[in-house]
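=== Structure Prediction Worksheet ===
Name of assembly: unnamed complex
Input type: mixed (protein and possibly other molecules)
Chain count: two
Listed entries:
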Amino acid sequence: MINEIKTIIQNYLNNAKLCCLMVGTVTSDGIKVSDKLTIPSDLIVGNLKRNLLVGQKVRLLRNHGGQQFYILEVISD
Amino acid sequence: MMEFLVEVDGKIFEISELVESVAYTDKLNDGCSKLEFSYIDDDVRLQNASVVRFRYDGADIFYGYVFKHGQNKAKEITVTAYDQLRYCKAKDTIVVKNDTIDSLARKMCNYFGLRAGSLASTGYKLPVSVQDDKTWLDIIYTAIDDTLTNTGRWYCLRDEFGAVAIRELQELQLDLVLGDESLAFDYEYEVSIDDNFYNQIKIVSDNEATGKRDVYITKDSGSIAKYGLLQYFEVLDKNYNPSQAKAKADALLQLYNRELETLELKCLGDVRVRAGNSFFGQIEDIQLNKRLIVKSVTHEFVPVHTMTLEVML
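=== Predicted Assembly ===
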């Protein structure tokens, strides 16, 4: 019983997509955070978005729900 | 009559004479359909992933794969088989962009190597979104919800005898009456204001321009006088402008300000009835006289064909 509840909560949290910090690389069509996932630029917000250059490493804040990504800073070129 | 084929090690067996029970369960946009059956035999030993094909009265009912089987001392073998959509419970990460429900379904079929059937073209481009670590089924169900809220057209994903299909519920209307005078032999009906019933909607949203919290209230005074005040409360997370927030409150009131009805029907079987199909319901005692959509259905084929339906009212 306890294990089932743990699994359910684990799955729920995983599905709800809590806020978290991510690191990604700027590419021509978005920001690549893993081999599988390149975040499309439509979902990226923040003042820094205008000045991004391909190849830059950036730190992102994922909003709750996982459909909005705020650029916190550029880490390196 | 019944035609029940199973494939074991490349050989095909007809076991309709041996089966003791067959139940087929289907739910609307909630996972794969399922065939559970049992039979007594020494020779035919099913294995997992064996193909099962079941037809009844000339109608295609189920084509799928064994996922579970067991037996007891009396040599009674019980088997559970699922259709192709079982494989779509796998998780993946994808970006939805310039996609429609049908293009997503096509991608899913290509990825898992599933056979695709009729994929209705919906014409509605889904909003850009990241689907990270979600099951393919959930990704498609989210797309179906988005399409429903934005266009009012409702689709379902299902496996039709070994072919994945997207259908609009509108085209799944059956020429069938179920009720007092037709096929039904029992029903259970319940009306409740216990769950999801609200006659006052209160919505608050943070206004970035003024730095204050805006409050929107919509209510139905007649309903409050009758049932007492039942309030729904929500804090909007997105930035809605006042007219959008008001519209949302009105939409919620319309959605929740009605008694929740549930109906379960027990009927003699009709092979055409699957989840998502709709039929005409007629039960005089509860003043029911309208078209109903099947939410879930269980068909039992032995000894006679009966079905239990849960419908949407």
